Amino acid sequence: MRRTLLAALAMLLAAPMAIAQSADYRIQPGDQLAITVLEDDTLNRELLVLPDGTISVPLAGTVRAGGRSVETVESAIADRLASNFAVRPSVFVSVIEIDETYGTFPIYVMGQVTTPGMVEVEPGTTMLQAIALAGGLDRFAATKRIQLRRTDSSGRERLFLFNFKAVERGGSIESMITLREGDVILVPERRLFE
């Protein structure tokens, strides 16, 4: 039983690394990479992808890694190093740790939406987009009194109001609030003559 539990735990922990090595995975800021250059082991190292999505590799300089596949980053580094070698070097990149804070995060949508509950969103998601992800407003929604409740690091809750009706009529969404982890969107039920 204990071995089965340990094997299951090992597979669970290895799953993000397997995803990171797939061709579909895109490297994110905060990920930790291992760079291996077969022709010169002094260039082998572990690097952290910076918030701007770049890494610094000796002799290759600054290389954009964020948003790219592992294979694309390998090729970019090899291209940059090629002038320092007689033949194009063999470069291998592997993601050794994923920074999950740069992936999706949970927010909560409650009240008069089609599908209330937790919604996983990406950084930069706005209130309007989150409402769409929750299936949109239902016919009983108070469209002028939508609330965003946000708790700051000191534990104090702040309330932001959003008027969907104004946006629907062509109003500007430039001031649209960008969501943060743990935000709660509350869509109240409309009143009798609202």
Commentary on this structure:
- The structure is a single chain.
- With 194 residues, the protein is α+β, with helices and mostly antiparallel strands.
- It is built from four helices and ten strands, in the order H-E-E-E-E-H-E-E-E-H-E-E-H-E.
Instruction: Please state the CA-atom Rg, rounded to the nearest Å.
Output: 23 Å
Largest sheet: 5 strands, mixed
Please write the string of helix (H) and strand (E) elements.
Answer: HEEEEHEEEHEEHE
On the 0 to 100 scale, the average pLDDT is 83
Strand tally: 10
Structural class: alpha+beta
Strand order of the largest sheet: 7-6-10-8-9
Q: How much β-strand is present in the residues?
A: 25-35%
Characterize the quaternary organization of these chains. Answer: single chain
The poorly predicted ranges are 4-20
Query: What does the overall shape look like?
Result: elongated
What percent of residues adopt helix (DSSP H or I)?
10-25%
